[in-house]
Amino acid sequence: MSTTNALTENEVRQFVTTWFHKLDIHTPLEDFLSMVADESIEFRFPEVTVTDQAGLIDWYNRVTHSFFDEVHETKELTITPESNRAKVDLLTHWQASTWDAPAARSQRIEFLAQQTWYVVRSNKTGQPVVSSYLVNSFDPVGDSAALPVK
Q1: Total count of domains within the chain
Q2: Which domain, by its residues, includes 116?
Q3: In a domain, 145, yes or no
Q4: How far, in Å, CA of 93 to CA of 52, rounded?
Q5: Coil, strand, or helix at residue 138?
Q6: H/E element holding 14?
Q7: Which residues are CB-neighbours of 115 under 8 A, at least 6 positions away?
Q8: Which domain of life is it from (predicted)?
Q9: Which tens digits make up the pLDDT trace of 86-108?
Q10: What's the CA gap between 8 and 13, in Å, rounded?
Q11: 146 falls within a domain
């Protein structure tokens, strides 16, 4: 597929599903990075803002070593195709477990994350990739433990 073809809503919807599945299974770093634009990225998480690949690698390594039994469930999803990208507005219910040694038990955390992404077509592969991933709000659900920031 040409890298100049506009992204379709179905393409982006499938990409969002794949993205969260790969986060849940802690896909290898190289696989994760293949879903991210090569240049001009912005990832704004609750704990850090990342604008380069080195920072994104640090973030990914930290979260895949901090959280387990993750589940991302998309509650709301709106995709707005634009000329050379697609805007994605979504609400995600995220659950994960954490464990702080030497605690006797793990803790379950649960948050609702309202996000805005921008997805573009990769110049290398022609596949959708994220260029901007902005967490606009990140609210605990119920009696969730606090988000551990390391």
Answers
A1: 1
A2: 9-140
A3: no
A4: 26
A5: strand
A6: helix 9-24
A7: 88, 89, 90, 91, 92, 133, 134, 135, 136
A8: Bacteria
A9: 999 999 999 999 998 899 999 99
A10: 9
A11: no
pTM for this prediction? 0.92
Question: Is 3 part of a structural domain of the chain?
Answer: no
Strand pairing report for 107-121 and 128-140: antiparallel
> Measuring CA to CA, which residue among 115, 113, 53 is closest to residue 78?
115
> Which pairing describes strands 49-50 and 68-81: parallel, antiparallel, or unpaired?
unpaired
Looking at residue 116, which CATH number applies to its domain?
Answer: 3.10.450.50
Residue type, 70: E
Query: What token pair was written down for 123?
Result: 């110049």
Confidence of residue 144 (pLDDT cuts 50, 70, 90): confident
**Dihedral sign, Cα of residue 14, residue 20, residue 25, residue 30:** positive
Q: Strand (E) positions, 19-127?
A: 42-44, 49-50, 68-81, 86-98, 107-121
Q: What is the number of other CB atoms lying within 10 angstroms of the CB of residue 96?
A: 23
Beta bridge partners of 110: 95
- Check if the beta carbon of residue 1 is closer than 8 Å to that of residue 126: yes
Cα–Cα distance between 27 and 80 in angstroms, integer? 27
| pLDDT tens readout for residues 48-93 | 999 999 999 999 999 999 999 999 999 999 999 998 899 999 999 9
- Asked whether the beta carbons of 78 and 12 are under 8 A apart, the reply is no
